[in-house]
Specification:
Residues 411-665 form the SET domain. It comes from Thlaspi arvense. By secondary structure, the protein is α+β, with helices and mostly antiparallel strands. The strands form 7 sheets. A 13-stranded antiparallel β-sheet has the order 6-5-4-3-2-1-13-12-11-10-9-8-7, with helices on both faces. It has a 4-stranded antiparallel β-sheet with strand order 16-21-29-28, with helices on one face. Strand 12 and strand 13 (317-332) form a beta hairpin. The radius of gyration is 29 Å and the shape is globular.
Length: 695
């Protein structure tokens, strides 16, 4: 019991101590006695599935943050009218601005059933019940703290209004990514003010019968910006939506649902998708003792976790969980509860770093680096490359000596993680100045609008004289490229009318939507999967930028629709997919500057020609080259000699273990110009040694 002592702690002040000395019963004294009793009644058998139950059901966050202000006296939308009805039914209007804090105790019973067959029915699968209890403090709405024990484990979570964090014995302290969101448990009919604040901005989507009650349905969705902030290089949050079902008769919240879809992929492996659906039914609405405020004093939460992907040979893996809860005590304005009670653990820091290249979410950088390196630190030769039009590997294992004679062998590099810049490429042996590190074929390449008549429509090689192969308005450098393009994307592309989409790109001088168009055609033709670029880091898109993207998506979708493509063929082409792909292309696409020459040409002259940009013919996206970080004084350079096949070469001697870096921009620019371009184009401020010196 000694290890559970923190759960017994409570804020007290001098007045409360004097009341206890006087023998008067207080609410805080009763809850201490209550939780001691509950702990004594529990049997602490630590089960492996209890960790999963507590991780999922213990203290999840709601998908969206609450509004900074709510106006319960005004109704400018259907959702706000429904919330006014709810506020009146629960009496929470009287709470607005009238209370300082809330204190809650409750009991829980959790069960879990694993269904590995993916069938809809659980059948007679056995389940084990785990009992527990929790204590929750809240200073509405952004500051809260919860401690929960069950099955011999104790977990906790909290928010001080700036950082939301969670502690589990198996993961330790860790911060939540994204916007500061409320505790989901508070929205399960327990905190009417937070429910009103969150759903005031919801969308009314219709009516539905829930548990025999006619309900209004309100929908909330996490915006794309916050989804990106909650994602990282391994896990991408694709969606997170919530629905609130409010009784048309009583106005009370009858059911709360939220569903999230996450894509998990470690480099070198296939993607796995996790879909988590959580539904809570609120029961026993009644007024809190000594108050007119009505809350749900009990309820049930069901969780369905589905895993699917090519890595699961047996099909869909399904896990079902259930929690039943009851509320024992609720109190307002507990003496001694101050903002100091919500201070996160000392080592807990969450920041969105813009350092030295790429951006990285970090709550404890050193700790994260150790964990992430355990997942990712492997040689790139183990990473399975994506196919490009049935050609050989997108990564060539060529190496070269200083004389330019090409030799075969594994590339002298590995991909790892750094504490400041995320993924990075390191040398596994000493590499001499001017040596070829490796070559790489593009996953996706597309000519610019001005180069359509002068370069190969597939590999972007410049067309010389009459050495051209024509096919329905475009040209190729060889019959091989013509055949590969036909199979890879062009047969699909020629079925649609792209005049409106092309005019849109020309008018706005857009280049990346053209790459999305080609990727769509490759996906439909089967040359690439729709998630080919998901491993790459996305750019952060502002709301204004996302709004501008919608026009392009509409034109692209209409082109396929008017061409009578089957629904199954274009099912992947959603607005969210289009936006996510553009965000990745925007920050990972390379401008192709052809400089001609051969393997033995002078490197410095080739680099100078590339920087001049006179040979720019299009853009391409690669796997490994996208992992190289930026430096204004780089030790490596990327070159394109004849076509879009990239060549990574050293600019000076590189020692074993040294990080290889390239320059994303024109390195000849001054300090202020470089910083402005990197900030606007790539979303970070460079802190390399050259920039630190002010050069």
């Amino acid at each position: 019991m000694q290890r559970l002592a923190p759960l017994m702690e409570e804020p007290v002040d001098q007045e409360e101590q004097e009341e206890e000395r006087g023998g008067r019963s207080t609410r805080s004294k009763s809850w201490k006695k209550w939780i001691k009793t509950q702990l004594q009644l529990m049997v602490f058998h630590k089960k492996p599935d209890m960790k999963v139950l507590l991780s999922v059901l213990g203290c999840p966050l709601f998908p969206v943050p609450p509004l900074s202000k709510i106006y319960l006296q005004q109704a400018s939308s259907s959702a706000q009218y429904i919330i006014q009805h709810f506020a009146a039914a629960t009496g929470c209007k009287k709470l607005a601005g009238g209370i300082k804090n809330t204190f809650v105790t409750g009991k829980i019973t959790m069960t879990m059933v694993n269904d590995l067959t993916g069938s809809a029915a659980v059948g007679s699968a056995s389940s084990v019940a785990h009992k527990g209890c929790f204590v929750m403090w809240q200073m509405l709405p952004e500051k809260w703290l919860i401690e929960l024990v069950g099955g011999g484990h104790k977990i906790s979570a909290g928010s001080d209004g700036e950082i939301a964090w969670r502690y589990t014995p198996w993961l330790g302290d860790h911060a939540a990514k994204g916007a500061i969101r409320p505790l989901r448990r508070a929205l399960q009919g327990l905190d009417p003010l937070t429910i009103s604040s969150v759903f005031s901005s919801a969308q009314f989507v219709g009516e539905k019968e829930i548990s025999g009650k006619d309900c209004f349905v309100l929908k909330l969705s996490t915006d794309q910006t916050d989804l990106s902030r909650r994602s990282d290089s391994t896990a991408e949050m694709i969606k997170h939506v919530a629905f609130g079902y409010f009784s048309q008769k009583s106005g009370l919240l009858v059911c709360l649902e939220d569903s999230s879809l996450t894509r998990i992929q470690i480099p070198g492996t296939l993607a796995t998708y996790w879909e988590t659906s959580m539904s809570s039914w609120m029961e026993d609405y009644r007024a809190i003792e000594g108050s007119e405020v009505v809350i749900a004093h009990s309820g049930r939460t069901d969780v369905l976790i589905s895993r699917f992907g090519e890595t699961l040979k047996g099909g869909i893996s399904v896990t079902r969980m259930e929690e039943r809860w009851t509320i024992d005590d609720v109190a307002f304005d507990v003496p001694g509860l101050s903002v100091d009670c919500f201070i996160p653990p000392k080592e807990m820091k969450m920041e969105f770093q813009h350092q030295d290249g790429k951006r990285l979410w970090s709550n404890n950088p050193k700790k994260m680096s150790r964990i992430a390196l355990g997942r990712y630190s492997r040689y790139f030769s183990r990473l399975k490359p994506l196919p490009y039009l049935n050609k050989p590997s997108s990564l060539s294992s060529a190496a070269s000596n200083r004389d330019g004679a090409c030799q075969t062998g594994p590339p002298p590099i590995r991909v790892g993680l750094t504490e400041s810049t995320g993924r990075a490429v390191f040398a596994t042996r000493r590499i001499g100045s001017g040596d070829l590190i490796h070559t790489a074929k593009p996953v996706l390449a597309c000519p610019s609008l001005v180069s359509l008549d002068s370069v190969c429509y597939l590999c972007l090689k410049k067309l010389m004289g009459s050495a051209k192969f024509y096919d329905r308005g475009v040209s190729y450098c060889s019959q091989e490229c013509q055949e590969n393009a036909k199979v890879g994307f062009y047969e699909v592309e020629t079925r649609a009318d792209w005049s409106s989409f092309g005019d849109y790109c020309r008018t706005h001088n857009f280049k990346y939507p053209l790459m999305v168009k080609r990727l769509c055609c490759m996906v439909i033709s089967g040359a690439l999967p729709a998630d080919s670029l998901d491993i790459l880091q996305p750019a952060a898109l502002s709301s204004e930028m996302i709004s501008k993207i919608e026009d392009g998506y509409g034109l692209l979708w209409n082109a396929f629709r008017k061409a009578n493509f089957k629904d199954d063929d274009v099912a992947f082409l959603t607005k969210q997919w289009y936006t996510a792909v553009l965000a990745r292309i925007r920050i990972n696409a390379f401008r192709i500057d052809l400089v001609g020459g051969s393997c033995g040409e002078d490197l410095l002259s080739l680099a100078a020609a590339s920087v001049e940009g006179e040979g720019a013919v299009g853009h391409a996206v690669y796997m490994l080259p996208s992992f190289y970080n930026h430096d204004c004084d780089p030790n490596a350079h990327i070159l394109w000699l004849q076509n879009a096949d990239a060549r990574l070469m050293t600019l000076r001697d590189v020692e074993e273990g040294e990080e290889l870096r390239i320059c994303y921009i024109d390195a000849s620019m001054g300090y202020e110009a470089r910083q402005a371009l990197l900030s606007q184009g790539f979303g970070f401020s460079c802190n390399c040694l050259r920039c630190q010196s002010g050069d």
